[in-house]
Specification:
With 87 residues, this protein is an alpha+beta fold. It is built from 3 helices and 4 strands. The structure holds iron/sulfur cluster.
Length: 87
């Protein structure tokens, strides 16, 4: 399941730096998480890093993007396989 940033986001930007998949981007007055890139940090960390650092606790699971643990591991593998090794 990908995560989603709630409307109460105060756009501090801390989460952007912590995401291992570059899934969080600024979009107008708020930040958004790309569900194609969010793995809930499965395969990289024990817990979602954006949730861990968010000072206002507005990052939650997105019920519209439900995925199993295995799905998330597969997604993580796809992201790593497609990453430019020179970046
Ligand atoms: Fe990025 Fe992890 Fe947050 Fe998903 S849960 S947006 S992969 S930091």
């Amino acid at each position: 399941m990908a995560l989603i940033i709630g409307a109460e986001c105060m756009t501090c930007g801390i989460c952007i730096e912590e995401c291992p998949n570059d899934a969080i981007q600024e979009s107008g007055p708020a930040y958004v998480i790309d569900p194609e890139l969010c793995t809930e940090c499965v395969g990289s960390f024990d817990e979602p890093q954006c949730v861990k650092v968010c000072p206002v606790d507005v990052i939650i699971r997105d019920p519209h993007h439900s995925e199993s643990h295995e799905d998330l591991l597969e997604k993580e593998k796809r992201i790593l396989d497609n990453r430019d090794p020179y970046l």
